[in-house]
Structures are given as structure tokens and as C-alpha cells.
């Protein structure tokens, strides 16, 4: 059964450009990681427009997008941007808009094309270290039931979602129906080394964060109209992923602070044993020297922890403002149903997270 017209598949990838306390050397490493997602011919020119200290939204290619140069039944492209301290990349694959109808089982073909562009020499698929979202967009054929088609699309994409468990809600935008699925949890375990000399874990060792949006439109007119929001999605999803990324970082920092606090209490107890001035104070001197490192790292991590809280607050505000922008651009009828009340905001979702089965 042919259910879709002009199906598009997008992958929004986000990488950290420059984190708090990172040096120019760190910036170059981050750029190298981001550039590795592109063909060799684009890497040398990718950052020529990336010189500003502050930059809300900067397209990194002078031609905006770079089309795939290999044979493919449809087309595809790269669209890289800088969003202040974050790099964003949209990789798109789609069939030509010739009104041909496609089955939902054509979606894996688009997915395979995108993933092929992200494979490294070992066959591993590169991901965004800050977060990523899969986005399916299509026009419905024959007035099909949007929810049933969305379920089929989710199944065909085959990235591990359980519709009944991971479905977050649906809303209306310009006559189209938008479905959201998310998997999020803190998966940090006791196997992580929290010692001061240990290398910090990768973000995927701290949290699980999978995100899918499916947008289905009833006709060609509304599908084309939705293109007006193409520059809103990269910003909106960036803010969302930064919220969850900062939350995951805060959970790791919380564990570091807890362990340092235990050591500090032990030092205090040992120091209290030397209240008598007649005692040999050389052991006390050693304790004080050892405690300096712990106190120093505790104060640094406390500052980082506070920074992650501010990151959550700032990006939640930006997220809400971007939603307001979308509402202003949408028609009055679409505005009423853009985001149903039962879809949780990122912060309310965070309140339901657990660490090792325990509520936070």
C-alpha cells in the first residue's frame, strides 16, 4: 500500500564547539570531530565563517547546503551551522518531489543513505556528542490515518523505539500532525571511575538520549508551507538537547561532589584529633597538604555544577522563546493545537528521571 508522498528523512546532529574552561587546542579538537562527519573536500573550508566570538546562528557553507555527489534514487545534502557554542549538522535524504507514492518501507532506504555518509573507516556510525534527533516528514496519500502511518514509519526506521512506551504526544502544525517519541534515562553506573585522576566518561556512558519526530501533512500545500519552519527546527532541537546534555553532566558532577564531600569529612575528623598543641603536628601538616587538592577540585566542580544549572535555565528559556516564534508564524488555528498540554516540557520530564532505579 502506497502511503507517503515526497518522504523526507532528516538527522539533526549536535556537537559541542567550545565548553566551559576549554582551550584553543580543545576547540580545534572539537572542530576536527565535527569535520569528520563531512566529505574530505568540505573540511578545509568548513570553518572559514566560524571566526566570531558570539554567534547565534551562522551557516558554515557559503552555498548553504552541499548535495550528495553519488548516485542515489533520490537526493540528499549536508547543512552545517554554528549555534553559538554548538555545531549543528542536518543530513537529509529524500525522494524527488514528482508526486510518486511510496510505501513506508521505503524509509530504511533513506536511513541507509544517511548512515552511509556517517560511517568511519571501521564501519562505526558517527553521532553527535551533544545529542541528535531523527525527523521524518511526508505528505499523506489517500487521507490515511496519520497515527497509523506514523507507527509504521517508526517501525520501519528501526532505531529501537517502542511506540507504546516511548510516545510522548502529538500536536498540530499548519494542518499537519506531529508525533514525538523520546527515550531518556540516566544510565551512569558504579563502574565509572570517579577518582580525580580518571578521564571523564563519554556522554553516552552517562545518559541514554534518543529522539524522533514524525510530521505528516494532509496535502501538498500544507507540506510545502511547513518549509517555513526549516530554520526553526535546528534551533529548537539544539536547545532541547543542551538541556538534557547539561542535566546528564550535572548528575556526573553530583557524584564527584558527593565523593569529595566524603573525603573532606574524613579530613575534618582527622584534623580534630590534633587539637592538643603538645602533639606531633607533622602528620597534621601532611593531612592539610592532601586536603588542599580535594578542596580545590571540590570548588572547581561546584562551579561547573552551577554552570550546568544555568545552562538548563538559559536553554529552557530559549526553547520557550523559539516555541513562541513558531506560534507567531503559524496560523491561529494551528497555534491552538501546536503543543498539547499533555506533552511535558523538558524540565518536567527531567523531574521523572532516575539514577540506578531511584528517583532524583
Oligomerization category of the chains in this entry: single chain
Provide the domain count.
Answer: 2
Specify the structural class.
Answer: alpha+beta
* Percentage of β-strand residues: 15-25%
Question: What ranges have pLDDT less than 50 throughout 5 or more consecutive residues?
Answer: 332-345, 347-360
| Global shape | elongated
Plain-language structure description:
- The chain is of the alpha+beta class and about 350 residues long.
- It folds into two domains: about 5-230, no CATH class; about 250-360, no CATH class.
- About 40% of the residues lie in helices and about 20% in strands.
- It contains eleven helices and twelve strands.
- The protein has helices at about 25-35, 40-45, 105-115, 145-155, 165, 205, 220-225, 235-270, 280-330, 330-335, 345-350; strands at about 5-15, 60, 65, 75-85, 85-95, 100, 130-140, 165-175, 175-185, 205-215, 355, 360.
- The strands form two sheets. Strands 1, 2, 3, 4, 5, 6, 7, 8, 9 and 10 form a ten-stranded mixed β-sheet that branches. Strands 11-12 form a two-stranded antiparallel sheet.
- β8 (about 165-175) and β9 (about 175-185) form a beta hairpin.
- α8 packs antiparallel against α9 (about 280-330).
- It is elongated and about 95 Å long.
- The two termini are about 45 Å apart.
- The model is unreliable at about 330-345 and about 345-360 (pLDDT under 50).
Q: What is this structure, in a nutshell?
A:
This protein has 360 residues and is α+β, with helices and mostly antiparallel strands. It has 2 domains: 4-232, no CATH class; 250-359, no CATH class. The chain has 11 helices and 12 strands.
